[in-house]
Write a structure and sequence with these properties.
682 residues; 8-stranded mixed sheet
Length: 682
């Protein structure tokens, strides 16, 4: 007969006269995060507060378990939570709910395919529950929509259907693509749901990507570009105010800059527009007021050094905005004349996004913190911001390494900051291996929120006693337009010097072992990883490059965003300065490479063509100076979306860093991975 340790201890305690509650035994250490934990994370993707401010409808991303569900994108469920935190699932399981909103009558509307649907349609469901009903269907999938205030009409965006002749030709095998010429425009339609009539086309020129019905009358505000190409969508969208009945253009906001969200004032006299400052501004983030009659545009917060992310109207004279400032976020309001700016939520955390505002003044957000990914947050009229949902309760059973904001100076005196995750079992006086995780863009930034994803090592690496640092190098956003432009026309220059300066700072603090530094990142972060493995190879002992750039010359000739590359990256065309592009290319320095490099890339990436990875891999393979491996993901684009390819990426990234920073090094680890899919079970 076997006794548990507790029973043995209890018997001994009784024998020597100790009370049982005083007996203690060493407990098994609580584990840190693993790649399998990351693969199970659920997170809120969108949230919209009801007009009366009592409920928040939200979508929840539920990742697939490749063992049980098969591979694919995460499911997207519909849930509702009240401002006290009582949450209920409305539509769950193997579903894809998108573009949630509230109808004027108080129902929840959304886009999805259900039953025998071949295309995404508009559905609605009562707040009291029951079965969702189809409101509008179309020949092609609906991509966005907006309700008329009377609830009888809804405007929506969809591409025009193929003609019968076009369908017949495709069925016969004529499936050729005319590159960048045969893209179908996204058109504007209006459906009258009161009589069930067929949707009518609003005949406006261009391809639409955003639509907002005016609270008063029959006007629509539209974001239109001349083509459906992503480059035009990034750089050449304009705001048009059109008559929904005739398609006539009443006014046009011709602002040559990146365009973000916009919102009507309740009286229909103004639009609050988030846009770039000018064509060279890397990211939309200025808050403008524009009269729907076409009067002069005005910057409402001209001295703001943050990045405006969201906007809503408290009343026709007051605009509420959400801005990111460095690694935190602020919610504030301002009068339409630019006066009486007032902070509503201080920039101290959590990091908030997805601002929506009810008629009562209550707000909802999607928020994150170092201890949890995106959840729903709410704020009553005068109250504090409160977390309303908790979708990963099991995280409380894990150990978390300390996460903190680190500030330091670049070699030229520029003030920089980033997010550091310290080794989970850090001991004073001991140095640790470091993974430098470089964000993409570079028109992006890393906030002090949840920074552990399939391609970002974060807590997974910290649990293995790595330090992980996310540098917000020059060119990052959320610190004003001027700072975000500091890296322009200087690719791989001072912006990548900042990375080395960050490493040197962490070495100087005594935390990091200078001989055991790795680098990783995707897109522009992948560019930095390629640079670290070639030009800066003497500083990095391992590199993991994801959808990254290796040849700046061929990159600008194969990307789908050439105009953006010109205006907000290089500020010159290839033929104007070949030498500049050549010197900014990691392949120019392949003979310096001695850093083991793992390269990963989606085979269908239109942004950074897979040839960027193929080139670098081939040159390093032929040279044979350092270990290199290339992993391609079929069906994936500029970043992995499927459950299996995300898990595979995370496992390979950590295997590479462990092998070369804390392990034996030498020849690469076996390319076959052993997947423990049982660990994905709830």
């Amino acid at each position: 007969m076997r006794f548990s340790k507790f029973m043995v201890g209890l018997v001994l305690a009784l024998c020597i006269g100790l009370p049982a509650e005083r007996v203690s035994f060493a407990q098994a250490p609580v584990a840190g995060m693993t790649a399998y934990d990351v693969a199970k994370l659920r997170f809120v993707t969108d949230a919209v507060i009801s007009p009366d401010g009592k409920h928040v409808a939200f979508t929840l991303a539920v990742p697939r378990n490749p063992l049980a569900d098969g591979d694919g994108l995460a499911f997207s469920e519909l849930h509702v939570v009240d401002l006290e935190g009582h949450s209920k699932a409305f539509i769950s399981g193997e579903v894809s709910i998108q573009k949630i909103d509230w109808t004027p009558s108080g129902e929840i509307s959304f886009l999805t395919k259900r039953g025998k649907d071949k295309e995404a349609s508009i559905y609605a469901i009562s707040l009291s529950g029951g079965e969702a009903r189809k409101v509008v269907e179309h020949e092609t999938s609906i991509s966005a929509y907006s309700w008329h205030p009377d609830g009888k009409r809804v405007a929506f965006l969809a591409t025009a259907a193929l003609s019968k002749d076009e369908k017949d030709l495709r069925d016969k095998g004529f499936t050729q693509e005319i590159y960048e010429e045969d893209g179908r425009l996204t058109r504007v339609w209006v459906a009258d749901i009161s009589n069930g009539s067929k949707p009518k086309l609003v005949d406006v020129k261009g391809s639409a990507s955003e639509i907002q019905w005016c609270p008063v009358g029959d006007q629509l505000a539209l974001a239109l570009a001349s083509t459906s190409q992503v480059d035009d969508n990034y750089m050449n969208r304009l705001v048009y105010v059109v008559n929904s009945l005739t398609g006539a253009v009443d006014s046009k906001l011709d602002l040559p800059a990146k365009l973000g969200p916009f919102a009507w004032s309740p009286d229909g006299k103004h639009l609050a527009v988030i846009s770039g400052e000018n064509i060279n501004d890397p990211h939309e983030g200025r808050l403008y007021l524009w009269s729907s009659k076409g009067e002069k545009l005005r910057d409402l917060v001209p001295d703001y050094l943050g990045q405006v992310e969201g906007v809503a109207w408290r009343n026709s004279n007051t605009v509420v905005y959400l801005g990111h400032e460095g690694v935190y976020s602020r919610v504030a309001e301002v009068q339409i004349d630019g006066t009486n700016r007032k902070t509503l939520v201080e920039p101290t955390g959590p990091v908030l996004g997805k601002l929506t505002l009810s008629e009562s003044g209550a707000m909802s957000f999607v928020g994150e913190s170092p201890s949890h990914p995106f959840e729903v947050f709410g704020r009553t009229t005068q109250g504090d911001v409160k977390r309303l949902t908790h979708h990963n309760a099991w995280l409380s059973k894990l150990r978390f390494a300390k996460q903190e904001v680190v500030k330091h100076k670049a070699r030229d005196g520029v003030e920089l900051e980033g997010i550091l995750v310290r080794p989970i079992d850090e001991k004073p006086g001991q140095r640790y291996p470091l993974i430098l995780a470089v964000h993409g863009g570079p028109e992006s930034h890393v906030p002090n929120g949840w920074i552990t994803q399939y391609a970002n090592p974060g807590q997974v690496a910290a649990a293995k006693n790595f330090a992980v640092f996310y540098p917000n190098y020059r060119g990052s956003t959320a610190r004003g337009v001027a700072f975000s432009k500091l890296g322009q026309a200087d690719a791989a220059g001072k912006e990548f010097d900042d990375l080395i300066d960050a490493v040197d700072h962490l070495v100087a603090t005594g935390l990091v072992d200078k001989a055991k530094v790795g680098i990783t990142g995707g897109s522009y972060g992948g560019y930095a990883s390629a640079w670290g493995a070639t030009k800066l190879s003497d500083r990095f002992a391992a590199s993991v490059m994801f959808v990254g750039i290796s040849n700046a010359i061929s990159k600008v000739g194969t990307t789908d965003i050439p105009t953006e590359m010109y205006h907000v990256h290089h500020r010159k065309w290839l033929w104007e300065d070949w030498n500049y592009f050549e010197k900014a290319s990691p392949i120019l320095y392949v003979k310096q490479a001695k850093t083991p490099l793992l390269i990963l890339h989606g085979k269908e990436d239109p942004r950074v063509h897979p040839s960027q990875s193929l080139e670098l891999h081939r040159h390093l393979k032929v040279l044979g100076q350092t270990p290199v491996r290339l992993v391609l993901y079929p069906g994936e684009g500029h970043g992995n979306r499927r459950a299996a390819s995300r898990l595979d990426y995370n496992l390979r990234m950590m295997q590479w860093f462990e092998h070369y920073l804390t392990g034996p090094g030498g020849q690469p680890p076996a390319y076959q991975l052993k997947y423990d899919l049982e660990k994905l079970k709830p």
